[in-house]
Amino acid sequence: MFKFVHAADIHLDSPLRGLARYEGAPVERIRTATRQAFNNLVDVTLAEEADFLLIAGDLYDGDWKDYNTGLFFAAQMSKLREAGVKVFVVAGNHDAASQISRQLSMPDNVVRFSARKPQTVVLDDLSVAVHGQGFPKGAVTEDLSLAYPQAVPGFFNIGMLHTSLNGREGHEPYAPCTIQGLLTKGYDYWALGHVHRREVLCQDPFIIFPGNIQGRHIRETGAKGCTVVGVQDGRISAVEHRDLDVLRWVVHDLDVTGASSPEEVVEMLGSAVKEQLDQSDGRPLAMRLHIVGMCRAHSRLMRETDRWVNEMRMVATDFSGGNVWLEKIAIQTRSRTSLDEMLKREDAIGGLLRSIQRLSANDEEFLSLLDELAEFRRKLPPELHFGEQAIELDDPHEHQSIIEDVKQILVGRLLSHDDPN
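^ that's the sequence the OP posted. Answer follows.
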């Protein structure tokens, strides 16, 4: 009987994005999160008394700023060497040979697979054959698995591959392949990397993306970790996930329908914070909060958005003992007053809303307005052109979202005199 641990997408020393933008965010804990998660991986490997550890690509996050990243990794590998644990590593797109300019010698228990062609390493004492190939460059568009050898007869065969498989949303289509193609090799386990969400693609044999070990931004929500595999008499006897993340990202929709004031909304936030903390097993949280629902509080939330956003941040930090940081707060409430009724009004407010409504129904008219704002668009900061905060003005779905937000802001501000709350 033997055990091994399968991990991928460590992105060691990758900066977590989004939390350090406002006062009170735990900058030091953010900066060291990937290292702490990697420490957890080593601890799990030792606690499980695993015989070897597989790292299926993107150990690093690109070139090192200095040698400290490599020194940290080498120190952790030395711990595993002292316990007799071998470590197998294939390079992914973020740590391809062409991207890492600095190198350090690693302890002799670390095996780095060739980036030129598939390589097989045999562990005779365990009757295990591990096959793998790293990325020779940052963007690999060919199917690397085609050149992998057939299974070694009489051995437990493992394939390590950094791949997008047949495509995964949010991930570059690198080293594409198919499940059927992997099955033709006759391996007993495929240890994949590149996709940051855990996914069991096949169980006979097991083909698994373990996901990354630490979420780095709001698109990487939920538990993150590794897979522990037990093998007995040449067959897999157990496959189990282990959480490793030290900071967890969550998106929470807080329904404040019926709330009569912003103060009541802030009180409701306390219950939401408690609910999310209860589900995190004691881990600190980075939360994106969507405030939704039709309520009387809408107009005041719109008039004094900065005030109430910061009230919510303060309450979340205080209520959680500093373990919840609101990465972003989107106030998406709606007025209790019917928009249809306001569209019928024969005054300036009704006319303005009808003009906006026409934009909503006519993409060409909206795009012509964008042409008039071309100079304004050029002055937008880079983060509003690219990335998760981008404003995609060429996307019709984005048009509708912007228009709806504008309508609700106007409703809240222009009609606030109708609502004493």
